[in-house]
Structure formats: structure tokens, C-alpha cells
């Protein structure tokens, strides 16, 4: 039986969707370029808040991440997953700001703009969405050779959590020491990275596993295909973030962070390209 016209995608709908996806991608590329310009030309003052380039980039990355997934999943599934990620990640970030658990003692500043309930910057839930979904996308690329094994789902969740930890490892010096979005307060934890206790990165990974336990059913595609085409969009967004963090650290003389960002980026590219070519 032929489906009702209301349930089918007309050629006009397909063209509009493709056009909108290209528009969102172009906005992300423009936001990325503006961010790079502000890093290389720090004397350039753009209109509005000093954090405007980062805010625009985060908004563009969030929109691009969500709409890129529409090629694989229904939009209602994507929005459900994004909402759960934002809710859990935002709630635990607020808990961390109040109690120091589980990330360690830190304080959010006003650099990211208004806060929910005077504790949580509005940008943090979006940061969780971008970090978790794109880390999962990169993990899918890396694990393509093993996507038909019985334990693939568990490996995907575990590697996604590791990639989130690596991304935050690159992010934290940029956010805390350069942009001052948050400050780490003195702690009894013996091991730190650029002022951040190592428990912070471990906690991001554990929270990611918790989030993926809830959202993975919504992120499993129901479309049957003999061989899926590798999606490089998550890799571009993920590496774009690491590149920005590394350049900013280089401009501010944080050379250990630059070396770490370079190592993370090169290793991720190698494993992702190897998996994508399978």
C-alpha cells in the first residue's frame, strides 16, 4: 500500500531540508572563522559581549550537531536525546558548582552570561550536547570495523566517554585559565592538570556513561542498510574545538596544553580515518 502523501517527503521538502543543512553548516564555518580571527588578532573588538564569538560558535555547533544527525535519525529522537543530555549534564554541573561533587571545587564566573538559578551558566547544557554527541560520532568512526560485533554497543559507550574526557582535557585550560569561564579553588586532590583536578575529567567520563545509558536507545538508527556511509561531521566539530583550544593556549604560552592538544588531535585523526576507511 502506498503511504499517504502527508507521510512522504516531497522533492520540495527534500530540497528545503538539504538547503537548511547547508545553511547551518555555513553558519558553523563562519562562526569558526570568526573565532580564529579573534584568536590571531586579539586587538580586534567585535560588537557586543567579549564572549560573543564563543557564544555564537557554541550555538552554531549545537544546531549543526543536531541537524547533522537528522540524516540518520528522526528529529524527535534527536531532540529527546539532546534534551536528556542537557538536563542530566546541566543538573550535575550545577551540583558540582554548589557542592564540588563530582568534579572538584570550582566556581562559575559571569563570563558566560546569565545563569539558571544563579548557579548554572546557560551555555553549559549546550556544551554537554556538543561534547557528548560529537564524541559519540567520533567513536562510531573509530569503531566502524567492529560495528557488527555483539559487544559493539558497550565499546561505543566506553570510547565515547574516553573521547569526552580527552575533549574536556583540551577544553579546560582554555575555559579556566584563558577565558575564565570558571575557576578552580584549592583542593586536596594531589594530581592536577593546568589547575584542574584529574577527578574532573574522570567525572565527565562517568557522567557521559550515565547519560548514554539513557539516550542510546533514541540514538540507534532503525533504517536498514547494507553498508553505512561514514559521517565526518562529528570529527570536524570535535577537532575544530581541540584546534581552537590549542591555538588559544599557544597564544597564551600554555605549551604543555598545546602539546597535549596536538597529541589528542593527531591520535584521534589517525584512528578515525583508519576506522572510516574500513
Average pLDDT number? 89
* Domains (count): 1
Counting helices, strands and paired strands, the structural category is mainly alpha
DSSP strand count: 6
Task: Quote the distance from N terminus to C terminus.
Answer: 38 Å
Helix content: 55-70%
Summarize this, please?
With 278 residues, the protein is mainly alpha-helical. It is built from eight helices and six strands; from the N terminus they run αααβββααβββααα.
Give me some keywords for this one:
single chain, 278 residues, mainly alpha, two-stranded antiparallel ribbon, 5% strand, disordered N terminus
What does this structure look like?
By secondary structure, this protein is mainly α. The protein has one domain (62-276). Helix content is 64%, strand content 5%. The chain has eight helices and six strands; from the N terminus they run αααβββααβββααα. It has helices spanning 11-40, 52-69, 75-99, 123-142, 152-178, 198-215, 233-251, 255-276, and strands at 106-108, 115-116, 120-121, 182-184, 192-193, 196-197. The strands form three sheets. It has a two-stranded antiparallel ribbon. Strands 2-3 form a two-stranded antiparallel ribbon. Strands 5-6 form a two-stranded antiparallel ribbon. A hairpin with a 2-residue loop joins strand 5 (192-193) and strand 6. The longest helix is centred in the first third of the chain and has 30 residues, at 11-40. It is globular, with a radius of gyration of 19 Å.
Amino acid at each position: 500500500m502506498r503511504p499517504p502523501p502527508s507521510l512522504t517527503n516531497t522533492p520540495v521538502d527534500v530540497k528545503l531540508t538539504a538547503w537548511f543543512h547547508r545553511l547551518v553548516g555555513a553558519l558553523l564555518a563562519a562562526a569558526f572563522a570568526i573565532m580564529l580571527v579573534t584568536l590571531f588578532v586579539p586587538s580586534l573588538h567585535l560588537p557586543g559581549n567579549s564572549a560573543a564569538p564563543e557564544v555564537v560558535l557554541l550555538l552554531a555547533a549545537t544546531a549543526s550537531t543536531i541537524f547533522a544527525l537528522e540524516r540518520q535519525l528522526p528529529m524527535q529522537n534527536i531532540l529527546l536525546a539532546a534534551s536528556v543530555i542537557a538536563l542530566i549534564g546541566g543538573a550535575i554541573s550545577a551540583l558540582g558548582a554548589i557542592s564540588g561533587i563530582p568534579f572538584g571545587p570550582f566556581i562559575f564566573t559571569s563570563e558566560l552570561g546569565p545563569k539558571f538559578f544563579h548557579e548554572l551558566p546557560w551555555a553549559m547544557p549546550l556544551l554537554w550536547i556538543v561534547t557528548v554527541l560529537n564524541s559519540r560520532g567520533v567513536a562510531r568512526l573509530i569503531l566502524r570495523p567492529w560495528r557488527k560485533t555483539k559487544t559493539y554497543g558497550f565499546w561505543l559507550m566506553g570510547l565515547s566517554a574516553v573521547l569526552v574526557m580527552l575533549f574536556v582535557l583540551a577544553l579546560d585550560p582554555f575555559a579556566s585559565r584563558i577565558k575564565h569561564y570558571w575557576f578552580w579553588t584549592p583542593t586536596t586532590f594531589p594530581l592536577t592538570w593546568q589547575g584542574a583536578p584529574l577527578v574532573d575529567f574522570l567525572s565527565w567520563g562517568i557522567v557521559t556513561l550515565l547519560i548514554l545509558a539513557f539516550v542510546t536507545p533514541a540514538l540507534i538508527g532503525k533504517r536498514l542498510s547494507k553498508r553505512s556511509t561514514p559521517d565526518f561531521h562529528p570529527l570536524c566539530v570535535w577537532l575544530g574545538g581541540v584546534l581552537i583550544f590549542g591555538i588559544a593556549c599557544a597564544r597564551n604560552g600554555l605549551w604543555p596544553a598545546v602539546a597535549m592538544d596536538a597529541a589528542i588531535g593527531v591520535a584521534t585523526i589517525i584512528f578515525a580515518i583508519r576506522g572510516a576507511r574500513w
